[in-house]
Amino acid sequence: MKIAILSRNKELYSPSRMVEEARARGHEIRVIDPLRCYMNITSHKPSIHFKGEPLEGYEAIIPRIGASFTFFGTAVVRQFEMMEVYCLNESVAITRSRDKLRSLQLLSRKGIGLPITGFAHSTKYTKELIDLVHGAPLVIKLLEGTQGLGVVLAETYNAGESVIEAFRGLKANILVQEFIKEADSKDIRCFVVGNKVVAAMMRVGRKGDFRSNIHRGGSVHKVKITPEERSTAVRAARIMGLNVAGVDLLRSNHGPVVMEVNSSPGLRGIETATGKNVAKMIIEFIEKNALSSNTKTKGQG
Description:
Layout: E1 2-6, H1 13-24, E2 28-32, E3 37-40, E4 47-50, E5 53-54, E6 60-63, H2 70-82, E7 86-87, H3 91-98, H4 100-109, E8 117-119, H5 126-132, E9 138-142, E10 151-154, H6 157-169, E11 174-178, E12 186-193, E13 196-204, E14 219-222, H7 227-240, E15 244-252, E16 255-262, H8 268-274, H9 278-289
Parallel strand pairs: 1-2, 1-6, 6-7
Antiparallel strand pairs: 3-4, 4-5, 8-11, 9-10, 9-11, 12-13, 12-15, 13-14, 15-16
């Protein structure tokens, strides 16, 4: 097969691991920077060009679209869909999962467990918003934040009011959520491929930090998940429409709650923590499913 990985940096662990596994299985694979692509959107003959050459003959692409270039990155994915190339994660699913508010609304509609979450535009109702999530301590999140950036724990009522008013003063869109104290600065990353959790790890925040992100200095450990956690992760990925996803869960007193569904989950942490060859599993999934007829949206999203 001829496969392309859409990634800004071919030296990163995740794309390099998938390149390694694809070549070991006899595939032709290449890492392409989506921001250096340009497109011809002509009717009946859409095309994509990279460094002066047309990208032709590809049977599958693996999008690794960073949050900072979601708009253009998903436009490139849509163009491949229009060319009837199989996309591991489709443009609509990536866009859906990147919008924190929209993704939580979709998960809520399907009955997935979530932290109590509030959203408002006006600061006139800050007190009511904080009360909605059971008061302090509470978590305040920028909708555009990633990797733990733009996430603040307000330990008191007054601190919550101040942070919310400051963010709104900057015209930032925010969510407020209940603080799941019993999670104890730990979360679980379930790595979903197709309709199964192929690996899971626990992420533990560094001392004094309630965020468990590896990029913030957290550590990772292999973890045994419950059937309910497994089912929740698979359902969350399916609701987003993602074939490959990192579903982040917290263990609360009322069962697993989903914090986020990531459309470009990293491989380093999960492979290191579990010893599983997740990159190989992704390539095997593509081998079984890479037919143009399996691309649902064909650029229509």
